[in-house]
Amino acid sequence: MSETGTAAERSGTRRGTAREKLLAAAARRFYADGVAATGIDTITAEAGVAKMSLYNNFSSKADLVRAYLDARHEEWLDLYRRRLEQARDGREGALAVFDAYADHASRAYAHGFRGCGLLNAAAELPAGDEGRAVVRRHKEEVESLLAGHLEELLPGRPGEARVVAEHLAFLLEGAMARAGLEGAGTRLEHARAMAADLLDRL
User: Fold this and answer.
1) Distances (CA, A) of 59 to 17, 24, 31, 53
2) Cα dihedral sign for 68, 70, 74, 76?
3) Phi, psi (5° rounding) for residue 134?
4) In angstroms, how far is the first alpha carbon of the chain from the final one?
5) Is 26:38 a contact under the CB 8 Å cutoff?
């Protein structure tokens, strides 16, 4: 391998490390303090990198916010996939969605659980902001996953499956909002129990 190639690899590794540090710091600060209240200086100081590192990895704060939202979506999907591995049927698949949200709520947050980080961020962003579109896509995907599991549970009844999926999505969002206000995942446990009861009566 040439010296040029080696230098490029090292540079790429440094950028990757800086990017990871910045995203991790942004995730902590955006969730704890909010997007608007968190400045670039706060993020770079917490990440332990120079301000120029931020602009070498992100074109702007808005770009960093979108990367944070994308990363949080992927983080949730990973929790969901892990739960889904244990699901044996459509009922358990739908409940895996609730479990993934509960898993997120049970994580150790520096300043406590504050609800859905995606919705919290979206509430601060102006209408038409790409970040809000990221959050909307996440919520639509969650409802679509629920609908897929319900179609498995209700074969030949796709219309009913979509209606129940919307119902469960509303139940989940309401539980997340209350859980965030109360700083604990208890409401999510209650919502899961309600969802299980509903599914058992289909």
Assistant:
1) 17, 17, 21, 11
2) positive
3) -60, -45
4) 63
5) yes
